[in-house]
């Protein structure tokens, strides 16, 4: 049986660790169920430094060392795979998750220590790889959903891995292999509602995979039917995601029984008091199910005794919960039912209160729907979390003013994110040249620069540069209309746009975004 | 035995958490001040001082 070490790399160092990596926890459970020997080192949770990571790597003769995570974990991953190659020369080093899936060829080039990249969903690929290790077979091109290196060191892409049709076959995540008591429960607080703030023992769960929307900033990790293998210009194969005119999706959700039984299991075993649904969007699933899914989850939440009851001291029995909603897809009826079952908070990606920004975004929502859902959610007794972004490609002074106007009227207190082209998103595909230009052609520098979108990295706004956006955000947050009006005058002079004409350079790229850099050359062979 | 590694078997070598040195008063001060940065709060991060002061003789 294969000896497996899974390492969850450090991510979001500026905050305490709050989230058990769900995909990795599922893979650990799958590997154990298949009879393998599994250890997990949650570097992100422990944050004990490199000396401990070295000890972990030296703790056994690992057959496979697996890492995964989102793109912003790249820096930590680079460091760990370097140590792993040196300490465990025999082990197969594997990387999966969004960091690899969004740009498989680039990642394999950046990280020569990685033997096999797992592209997209790993529920079948990962145990299949472990079986191959047991059989002494390292012919990875025979394992679908991988990218590996041939004898000459060229990258080899095996055929795409199909998604599993039925999610309920999955075991529960191996929560026991992560430091719940030592780390995660201590960081249960979820500052989105009163109940979220008071949570003492929060866990995340995922009820669905996929999202029917095509927001240009979003990435679906290659596990939502969003990924395609396409013929590349050079005759090889490109791993492609959302692109104008080419969107694909597969919607999958767990049955309400599976979800609520899993929550009941966590309630009985770990005494949890809060659940954060990490689903991309609960409402898109509900709509897809013909408005049955959330109703049934809520009904079972009551039936299994999970609907929370408050004690006089503010604590409660049962489980409060929260997730992500959608401005156009929520209904008054379902919001009320959700509140009664313990939903205390719902994230709304309102993004902007400007009509043309919303139209270009592909979200299927309008400022009017944003406002309607805002009031419906408050009326239901749920806190809406009104996420905002600035620096959209077609952002203008007027769209920023529309945001400020809405914030003022709706009492929204927010520090907006900057529009960021994370790898895998449509923006990344659209603006790749412009991103490279901002990093002198060095893609890895961009990846290392990515973090929370509260800080600026690559800018994709046609009208404002990073310095302008930081300044404008500051003025917006303090509702300094006067300074913004003044700056618009200067901006118009600088860009030679007379009064009365719209203050925009869009469409047509801003002068600082026109340099065309050649695509980096890659060697890529395709498995037959 | 430390619980840094969690799994379904006993590893050959144990992973021992290093003794965590007590936070020094200097570190505690700088960490606390950082949280309140702004207004009249500004401080020297002593470990980051790179220049040397060489008085002209
Ligand atoms: C939980 C979460 C986080 C957590 C931690 C994520 C983690 N450690 O995995 C935290 C809170 C840290 C986080 C932060 C951010 N996130 Co986030 N997050 C999510 C979320 C909601 C769920 C991820 C998840 O568990 N999915 C479900 C599981 C099943 O998928 P999975 O973990 O990817 O695992 C599968 C495969 O990827 C693969 N796999 C994963 N690990 C491994 C390991 C091995 C060895 C193998 C073989 C395979 C493998 O196998 C699994 C099964 O198929 C997703 C949205 C979503 N619903 O998916 C966004 C998402 C991952 N986040 C995203 C973004 C943009 C961010 C932020 C940058 C946003 C921001 N605020 O600015 C920040 C990062 C800030 C920072 N400073 O680093 C993007 C990803 C962008 C990218 N290119 O990577 C997503 C997809 C949201 C979106 N739709 O755009 N996030």
UniProtKB/TrEMBL annotation, chain A:
Entries under Pfam families matching the protein: B12-binding, Radical_SAM
Coiled-coil spans in chain: none
Cofactor: [4Fe-4S] cluster
SUPFAM superfamilies per the UniProt record, alphabetical: Radical SAM enzymes
Keywords: Iron, Iron-sulfur, Metal-binding, S-adenosyl-L-methionine
Domain annotation B12-binding: ranges: 4-140
GO molecular function, one term: metal ion binding
Keyword Iron belongs to the record: yes
InterPro entries recorded: BchE-like (IPR051198), Cobalamin-bd (IPR006158), Elp3/MiaA/NifB-like_rSAM (IPR006638), rSAM (IPR007197), rSAM_horseshoe (IPR023404), rSAM_sf (IPR058240)
Record has Zinc as a keyword: no
Name used for this protein in its record: Cobalamin B12-binding domain-containing protein
Species for this entry: Rhodopseudomonas palustris
From TrEMBL, chain B:
Highest rank taxon of the organism: Bacteria
Protein name: Uncharacterized protein
């Amino acid at each position: 049986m294969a000896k497996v070490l899974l390492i969850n790399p450090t991510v979001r160092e500026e905050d305490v660790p709050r989230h058990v990596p769900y995909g990795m926890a599922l893979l650990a459970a799958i590997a154990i169920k298949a009879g393998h020997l599994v250890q997990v080192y949650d570097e992100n949770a422990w944050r004990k430094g490199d000396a401990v990571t070295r000890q972990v790597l030296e703790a056994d003769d690992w057959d496979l060392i697996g890492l995964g995570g989102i793109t912003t974990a790249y820096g930590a991953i680079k460091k760990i795979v370097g140590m792993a190659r040196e300490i465990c020369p025999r082990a197969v080093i594997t990387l999966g998750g969004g960091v690899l899936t969004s740009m498989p060829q680039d990642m394999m080039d950046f990280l020569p220590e990685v033997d096999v990249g797992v592209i997209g969903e790993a529920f079948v690929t990962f145990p299949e790889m472990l079986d191959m290790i047991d059989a002494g077979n390292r012919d990875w091109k025979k394992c679908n959903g991988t990218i590996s290196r041939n004898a000459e060191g060229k990258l080899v892409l095996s055929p795409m891995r199909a998604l599993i049709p039925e999610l309920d076959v999955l075991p529960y995540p191996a929560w026991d292999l992560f430091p719940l008591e030592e780390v995660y429960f201590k960081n249960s607080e979820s500052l989105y509602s009163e109940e979220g703030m008071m949570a003492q023992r929060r866990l995340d769960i995922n009820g669905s995979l996929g999202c029917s929307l095509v927001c240009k900033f979003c990435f679906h990790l290659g596990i939502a039917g969003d990924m395609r293998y396409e013929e590349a210009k050079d005759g090889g194969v490109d791993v492609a995601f959302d692109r104008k005119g080419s969107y694909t999706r597969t919607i999958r959700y767990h049955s309400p029984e599976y979800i609520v039984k899993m929550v009941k299991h966590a309630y009985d075993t770990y005494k949890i008091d809060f659940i954060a649904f990490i689903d991309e969007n609960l409402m898109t699933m509900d709509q897809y199910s013909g408005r049955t899914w959330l109703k049934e989850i809520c009904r079972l939440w009551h039936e299994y005794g999970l609907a929370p009851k408050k004690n006089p001291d503010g604590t409660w029995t049962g489980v409060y919960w929260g997730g992500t909603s959608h401005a156009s897809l929520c209904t008054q009826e379902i919001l009320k039912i959700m509140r009664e079952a313990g939903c205390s908070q719902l994230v709304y990606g309102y993004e902007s209160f400007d009509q043309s920004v919303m139209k270009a975004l592909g979200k299927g929502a309008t400022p009017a729907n944003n406002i309607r859902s805002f009031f419906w959610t408050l009326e239901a007794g749920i806190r809406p979390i009104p996420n905002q972004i600035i620096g959209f490609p077609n952002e203008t002074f007027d769209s920023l003013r529309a945001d400020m106007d809405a914030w003022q009227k709706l009492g929204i207190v927010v520090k907006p994110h900057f529009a960021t082209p994370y790898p895998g998103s449509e923006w990344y595909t659209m603006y790749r040249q412009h991103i490279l230009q901002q990093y002198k052609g060095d893609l890895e520098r961009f990846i290392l620069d990515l973090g929370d979108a509260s800080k600026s990295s690559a800018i994709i706004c046609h009208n404002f540069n990073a310095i302008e956006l930081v300044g404008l955000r500051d003025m917006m947050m303090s509702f300094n209309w006067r300074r913004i009006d003044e700056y618009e005058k200067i901006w118009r002079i600088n860009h030679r746009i007379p009064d009365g004409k719209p203050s925009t350079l869009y469409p047509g790229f801003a002068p600082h975004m026109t340099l065309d850099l050649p695509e980096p050359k890659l060697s890529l062979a395709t498995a037959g | 035995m430390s619980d840094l590694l969690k799994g379904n078997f006993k590893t050959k070598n144990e992973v021992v958490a290093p003794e965590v040195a007590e936070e020094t008063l200097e570190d505690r001060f700088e960490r606390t001040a950082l949280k309140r940065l702004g207004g009249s709060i500004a401080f020297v991060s002593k470990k980051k001082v790179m220049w040397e002061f060489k008085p002209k003789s």
